[in-house]
Please model this.
Amino acid sequence: PLEPAFTTRDNGKTVLELPDSFYTDRYKAESDQVGNRFSKNVDVRIPVQELASVPNLDFAKPLGPKKQFSLFNDQHRNIASELITLFMNAPNLRQFVSLSVFCKDRLNPMLFQYAYAVAIAHRKDTTEVPITNISQVFPSNFVEPSTLKDGRQEGSVFGESGDRVPVAIPRDYTASDIEDEHRLAYFREDIGVNSHHWHWHLVYPTTGPYEVVNKDRRGELFYYMHQQILARYNAERFCNNLKRIQPLANLHNEVFEGYFPKILSSVNNRTYPGRASGQLLKDVDREDTRITIDEILRWRNRIMDVIDQGYVEDTSGQRIPLDEVRGIDILGNMIEASPVLSVNMQLYGNLHNQGHNIISFAHDPDGRHLEEFGVMGDVTTAMRDPIFYRWHGFINTVFTKFKSLLNPYNAAQLGFEGVSVDYIEARIGKKGTTPNVLATYWQNSTVDLTAGLDFSSATNVLASFSHLQNAPFTYTFNVTNNGAKRTGTCRIFLCPKVDERNMALRLEDQRQMAIEMDKFTVDLVPGVNTIRRQSTESSVAIPFERSFRPVGANYQPQAADELARFRFCGCGWPQHLLLPKGTTQGMVFDLFVMISDYSQDSVEQPNTPNDACSTAYSFCGLKDKLYPDRRAMGFPFDRRLPNTYLNEMVDAFGNMARTDLRIQYTDRTIVK
Ligand code: CUO
Model:
């Protein structure tokens, strides 16, 4: 088996022993020296095999080692696709190791890390190999740069002595309070949020071998996962007294929101460029990116037209209907767009990705200043920028148009005859607390940055940062089953009740802002059933420890199952942001619970145990399995509903219930 440290830098415990042929020309003469430097105090030596055939890496040349790598860039995606194919085709594990080691110093580091992680996630023989969290491999993409300087200093001066302390990552460094959008910086710049986004795109690449790209309902999940990010961001905006997201519908208007990220690129140590407030978007005409605003608008119009028509045309002119089962999936793959899965890239274009590009180059559209793209050009950083939510808000309006043309859900789809949800509550702790009052606060946590700091000392470099946190809570539902034993799916959502003007939201608006909190299967015996569920079990989130698991120095998995727990775990909304922040006075939401009829939900799955890390299945699916819910993602809120207000719908259907739920925010920090 591979040591986890293999995926990171040498940590003083494990070392790879390279054949001389692996050293690049620059280091060949010094191979003894280099080998010695990393071979002190080593416990485990892993000999690396010679390569059966040395790959020709010329295809990657256009993406030099110091260029920024973007998954939205066609040229970069083609290069990544070729590299993923190379990694996937390595004949066995030892050769895959050799190939990875050989490629690592010869390729752009971000490109390497992406393709390597995609291969680890998809090869059959690497299921036991953990993927290092991206925030630990490339910390400079995630944390304020002075932290890294302090961290190196702390690591080299204090070594293993007890005087070494975690360096503090400042919480508030990208803007002042003059900028209203800065109120949401804690959400946009959260390490867990950004690493989730990277890992999602890693699990669902747009290019590469067909069997890697083609996953069950992939296009629909692209729509749904990003739609849920927007719903969460909207709720967070209301908590911070900001208006809902304004979709970026007009690309000729000034972009009001500026953003100056102040983080460093991991490949060239320059800061990511900023964007001044009021920037106009321009046609991009650069060596490796050419895109005009007109082209984007043309694709948008074509896509809007086919939604009205009800079918798309593939490259041979065949009509494929956009029906209620497959339509959203076809549109997702076509709009994102995946060259492997889009029905017709020539006709429907590359709408979402090219939007990222046009926004990310607004500061230097023709490259005259030799500036690279801004944070919107990179999936590790895009969610930091307020414009991300406006661009995805626009993309979401296209999907929403499609959904709005489907019939509203009817009673047969929504109801569950004989099942009634009589009581629901969410409560912190077990007893003695007030039901339906939940709490948020700040927490100070530590993350290990060692893996990302090349040539630093062999000791851990820890950084502490504060992030929003919620007190864990328990749901309790009383459900009466007036029939025989049967199964249902419990669906829990949180919905804002009022809009930015404090006006009650109608169901049609509310459903589009509904946040999925959890979804799980329940067995109902005849009579009264009490269902209990912990907030930490949520099907959308992964715990803090998984976002920031220790894989740096001194990480030794205790047992195979512990290793398995950490595997493939980067995808999932961070548990610490499961709840919106709320307000100091307490912000009231609708807690909505529905038990749907499992006979309409169930999916025939391969009869194998779920991957140990497939816990955030609502957002990330199940590894090597079908999406575990036959209903449309977001059901029942993805389509129009028969009632005007949520209360009316809940009254009409016994298998639904709602209650007011108050989220109380306290401005205090707990140190973990
Ligand atoms: Cu995830 Cu636009 O798709 O960033």
